[in-house]
Design brief:
The structure holds two protein chains of two kinds. By secondary structure, chain A is of the alpha/beta class. In chain A, 45% of the residues lie in helices and 23% in strands. Chain A contains five helices and five strands; from the N terminus they run E-H-E-H-E-H-E-H-E-H. In chain A, helix 2 packs across helix 3. The model of chain A has no long low-confidence stretch (mean pLDDT 93). In chain B, the strands form two sheets. Chain B has a five-stranded parallel β-sheet with strand order 1-10-9-8-7. In chain B, 50% of the residues lie in helices and 6% in strands. The longest helix of chain B has 23 residues. Classes of the chains: A alpha/beta, B alpha/beta.
């Protein structure tokens, strides 16, 4: 099936830094993905949007320290709804060991830290989604 | 006695005589054609400053042939204040060493503030966590995960008291980094209430709050945002009330910094900051104030980015633009109304996570540019910027960097040492023109509030970011260690991170106790008066202050605003 990859992007909670997540959303669109940018949302709303949009990927941006508190909730809520196939990616400013924990302990597919080239993000998403299709 | 344009119709005296300039132009052509190789000549037209001003291979007096020293540059502390706001500049008073502090609970911050003051910091600069910035209490469900992260949690006047334990509020000057006008109505009020309680008269309280509606509506996206016109009204309420009641406190810091970090060039940064000052001045004049009543208390906040000379030129140019706006547009009489005083923070956005110690060099160079540009106070970003708010070690390195610039380099010994550089004067002149052009563009859109409401400014930011990122991705903009001269990526960065996981429970317990101990009837009464005043033209400040004195929490007051004024959709979604 030649369906575009559907991505739901959100700024986590009260974090205000929108520059990065908006930029990444635009690059994804240019790379042929179907992207919905939600703006600032909390986990429940993000998961609802993921269901409504039939998303393949949820992208979460956090630059204000709420990555460990809110990121894992999104993963858990998706699983509770039986949406294991939805991959959760995160990006933003956080200590590298937090990024590792999000990937290893909390089921986040991949965390993209600062300085990551856009293409690496696009490739990472493509690879993860195509593996499950 | 020097003459000025407004003294008559005499032509200004230029730096170099016409004959001299003609000679230089002839010889420049000769030099360009004969001394340079063809491939050198080919490079001309291909270099630009960060903001897009063309850069020549070499500058001569011919590039500033129309510049008059007396009219366009002037003496330090004299119009048009290009060279600095004080005649003696740093010999008289060094720039204030104002490093940010804010992490965890107010009690943790108090330790950091005392630590910085003990190590020679001369001002305090406090920043808040996201719930506080956006006006939520720590125990609000919306605050989850952000309490005490990347700034301090402040819920009530108790927290402000703890933040400044053992610090004499009549003796320090404190920058209270309230980003939004809605919280600037409340958080500085907590500071004033603490001062009052300790017996320090408001006439002795010095400091600054940020209070910029661009922060609320463009720079930060938000879960819930007040409409631009409401945010702008609140911004003006705070300026009006503080100018009348707390004479040593700057009620606004027009924030080019965060706008620049969100995505603009140096020209837009200054032009938008000054456009906001113009809009604010017009509103306050409408309310019956005189320009000279409030202009001396307006301050500005610039971001010093990587383009060394352009940033210095920006600082110089911004003072001249403000002088002309104050004098020519608003008819300022008091010289203090014409002086642009500004705080500088070095550019966090330029500090990558890769090889973080390199950021010490980047920040030092940016800090040097700020001092060469004549800033009044400075924060130098720390090397762990891309990981978290600075650790104690990183904060100390930043503080030491400032002290090294002040005492070891000799740059503070003479005023505006780059004046007269053909290149710096050319750039300064270019910046002045381009800032004025951008201000005119905003006026053409109906003014700054409308430029925000329509989403125009958001689109400017997005367009800039697209171009910036493209330049990084295609290697046109080189970042050492990131996309150029890459090092060993596998090597772990020597970074530790501060964490205060207990902040949430501490703040929650404190709020519970507060709600039990305060007189809740007084709180309700104060809030109900405030609620009613929202729908009048009255200044909201005294009613907020009254609520704060009665120990209303930040979240309670902000929730009231959200209910009464409704919310605005961020125009990019």
């Amino acid at each position: 099936m030649d369906r575009k990859i559907k991505v739901v992007m959100a700024k986590l909670g009260l974090d205000i830094h929108w520059r990065g997540v908006y930029l990444v959303s635009q690059f994804m669109k240019e790379a042929g993905m179907d992207v919905v940018y939600l703006g600032n949302k909390f986990p429940t709303e993000i998961v609802e949007a993921a269901i409504e949009e039939d998303a393949d990927v949820v992208g979460l941006s956090s630059l204000s320290g709420n990555h460990l508190a809110l990121g894992p909730i999104v993963v858990d809520m998706l699983r509770e709804k039986g949406l294991d196939r939805v991959k959760v990616f995160m990006g933003g400013v956080m200590p590298p060991d937090h990024a590792k924990r999000l990937e290893k302990e909390y089921g986040v597919q991949k965390v993209f830290l600062p300085d990551t080239p856009m293409q690496e993000i696009i490739d990472g998403i493509n690879a993860a989604v195509n593996n499950t299709h | 006695m020097a003459y000025r344009k407004d003294d008559g119709n005499k032509e200004p005296v230029c730096l170099f005589s016409e004959e001299h300039v003609r000679l230089i132009k002839d010889q420049y052509k000769d030099w360009f054609d004969k001394s340079l190789r063809e491939e050198d000549r080919q490079t001309e037209g291909k270099y630009f400053t960060h903001s897009g001003i063309p850069v020549k291979l070499a500058y001569t007096p011919a590039d500033i042939e129309n510049v008059s020293y007396i009219e366009d540059i002037g003496f330090p502390g004299h119009a048009p204040y290009l060279r600095g706001v004080y005649p003696n500049m740093y010999r008289g008073r060094l720039f204030t060493v104002r490093q940010l502090a804010g992490l965890g609970a107010p009690e943790d911050c108090n330790e950091r503030v005392c630590y910085l003051l003990d190590h020679g910091a001369t001002g305090v600069n406090i920043l808040f966590d996201m719930p506080t910035i956006r006006g939520y209490n720590s125990d609000d469900p919306e605050a989850e995960g952000n309490v005490g992260a990347c700034g301090a949690a402040v819920d009530s006047v108790w927290d402000m008291d703890a933040f400044f334990k053992d610090i004499d509020l009549g003796a320090v000057s404190t920058s209270i980094v309230t980003h939004l006008p809605s919280t600037s109505l409340v958080i500085p009020g907590m500071y004033f209430a603490v001062a009052e309680k300790r017996g320090t008269p408001l006439s002795k309280v010095a400091g600054t709050c940020q209070n910029d509606f661009i922060m609320e509506t463009c720079v930060g996206s938000g879960y819930e945002i007040l409409p631009p016109s409401v945010s702008f009204r609140m911004q003006c309420d705070t300026v009006e009330w503080i100018c009348k009641n707390v004479p040593r406190f700057n009620p606004i810091s027009f924030n080019g910094y965060n706008l620049r970090e969100a995505g603009t060039d140096a020209i837009a940064e200054v032009a938008i900051g000054i456009s906001n000052a113009i809009a604010t001045a017009e509103e306050l004049i409408k309310r019956g104030m005189k320009f000279d009543d409030f202009a001396p208390r307006m301050s500005f906040f610039w971001d010093l980015h990587n383009d060394f000379f352009e940033e210095i030129a920006k600082c110089r140019a911004s003072r001249k633009v403000w002088y002309k706006v104050a004098k020519e547009r608003f008819g300022a009489q008091n010289p203090k109304s014409m002086l642009m005083r500004f705080h500088v923070q070095t550019a966090g956005v330029t500090l990558p996570a890769t090889e973080p110690l390199n950021n010490i060099a980047r920040s030092a160079i940016q800090g040097l540019a700020a001092v060469l540009g004549g800033c009044q106070s400075l924060h130098i970003d720390s090397f762990d910027e891309a990981y978290s708010a600075p650790t104690e070690e990183a904060a100390l390195v930043s503080l030491r960097t400032q002290q090294i610039i002040q005492t070891e380099t000799g740059v503070c010994n003479t005023v505006d040492p780059l004046a007269g550089s053909y290149y710096v004067e050319y750039l300064t002149d270019q910046m002045v023109q381009r800032i004025f052009d951008y201000i005119s563009k905003i006026e053409g859109l109906g003014g700054l509030v409308q430029a925000v409401e329509s989403g125009w400014l958001h689109r400017e930011i997005v367009n800039y970011n697209n171009k910036y990122q493209e330049k990084i991705e295609n290697g046109q903009m080189k970042i050492v260690g990131v996309n150029f001269m890459k090092g060993d990526k596998a090597k772990a960065a020597p970074i530790q991170v501060f964490e205060y996981p207990e902040t949430y429970s501490r703040q929650k317990a404190k709020l519970e106790r507060l709600r039990k101990e305060r007189n809740n009837r007084n709180v309700e009464e104060a809030l109900s008066i405030l609620r009613q005043k929202c729908h009048t033209n009255e200044n909201l400040y005294p009613y907020c202050l009254d609520a704060v004195r009665n120990m209303a929490t930040l979240g309670e007051i902000e929730e009231l605003f959200r209910e009464e004024f409704g919310l605005w959709a961020f125009p990019l979604l």
